[in-house]
């Protein structure tokens, strides 16, 4: 019987946030961002255990008080992919090949147990795994050629996380990726194998908190939970 595990990369520095502390520890409605993210998995009865990857020199993680035990892996790397690869290697003794890994950004505190359940139910045994994503609703412009051009938006999605794959598939995909540090999400490596991860509609509240202006938006969504 396959189990479901969360792997939360939380070893970034938040350069675009340009805050005094790594953004995953900034307060959202008074609670560290990472704490909100952990709570989403802890309130899900489908998640067997949560692993969090932090920097080897992280001095903040001890301030997080998760409701359930988590495994802190002090093996963060220079890139998101390196942190994830290191985390997967550290998880080897705990997971079977068929166990499912839900890789979720610490910087997406708006995740809910309902969105986790939706992803798990929709993906089922789909060979290519799957991820939460949002269909593009705005007109898309490109300046890649120098001139402004409109890219047709039909069929375009914005990837979110969790991105969920079997442990063996994810490890194999990242190992075979020509340059894992050049890809920005795990699904890209799966696609390079010729597989097609399932896109499952997520929610704007599952936004990635990247820029200072994102904090207030995330706080708005999370304030709705306490009503
Ligand atoms: N070397 C890294 C870089 C990123 N992450 C994690 O990957 C997630 C998504 O990355 P991003 O939003 O880019 O976070 P940062 O890299 O911290 O932000 P920035 O790019 O602005 O520095 C975050 O939870 C971040 O902590 C990580 O574990 N290890
Ligand atoms: C994985 C991700 O959140 C999907 O949109 C995104 O690619 C992370 O990018 P970042 O630059 O590491 O924040």
TrEMBL record:
Q: Which organism is it from?
A: Massilia eburnea
Does Nucleotidyltransferase appear among the keywords? yes
Which Gene3D superfamilies does the UniProt entry name for this protein? Spore Coat Polysaccharide Biosynthesis Protein SpsA, Chain A
Q: Which UniProt keywords apply?
A: Isoprene biosynthesis, Nucleotidyltransferase, Transferase
Is Electron transport given among the entry's keywords?
no
Question: Gene name, please?
Answer: ispD
Cite the position(s) of the site with description Transition state stabilizer.
Answer: 16, 23
One GO BP annotation of this record:
isopentenyl diphosphate biosynthetic process, methylerythritol 4-phosphate pathway
Q: What is this protein called?
A: 2-C-methyl-D-erythritol 4-phosphate cytidylyltransferase
Judging by the UniProt lineage, the source's domain of life is Bacteria
Q: Which CDD domains match?
A: CDP-ME_synthetase
């Amino acid at each position: 019987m396959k189990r479901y595990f969360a792997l939360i990369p939380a070893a970034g520095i938040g350069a675009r946030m340009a805050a005094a502390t790594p953004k995953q520890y900034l307060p959202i409605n008074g609670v560290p961002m990472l704490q909100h993210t952990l709570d989403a998995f802890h309130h899900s009865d489908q998640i067997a255990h949560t692993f969090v990857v932090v920097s080897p020199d992280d001095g903040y993680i001890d301030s997080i008080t998760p409701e359930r035990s988590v495994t802190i892996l002090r093996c963060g790397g220079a890139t998101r992919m390196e942190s994830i690869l290191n985390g997967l290697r550290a998880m080897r003794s705990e997971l079977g090949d068929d166990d499912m890994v839900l890789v979720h950004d610490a910087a997406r505190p708006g995740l809910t147990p309902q969105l986790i359940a939706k992803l798990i139910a929709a993906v089922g045994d789909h060979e290519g795994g799957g991820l939460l994503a949002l269909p593009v609703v705005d007109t898309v412009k490109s300046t890649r050629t120098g001139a402004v051009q409109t890219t047709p938006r039909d069929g375009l999605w914005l990837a979110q996380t969790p991105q969920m794959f079997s442990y063996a598939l994810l490890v194999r995909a990242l190992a075979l990726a020509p340059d894992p540090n050049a890809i920005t999400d795990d699904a890209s490596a799966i696609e390079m194998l010729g597989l097609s991860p399932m896109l499952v509609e997520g929610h704007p509240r599952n936004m990635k908190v990247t820029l200072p202006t994102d904090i207030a938006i995330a706080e708005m969504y999370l304030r709705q939970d306490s009503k």
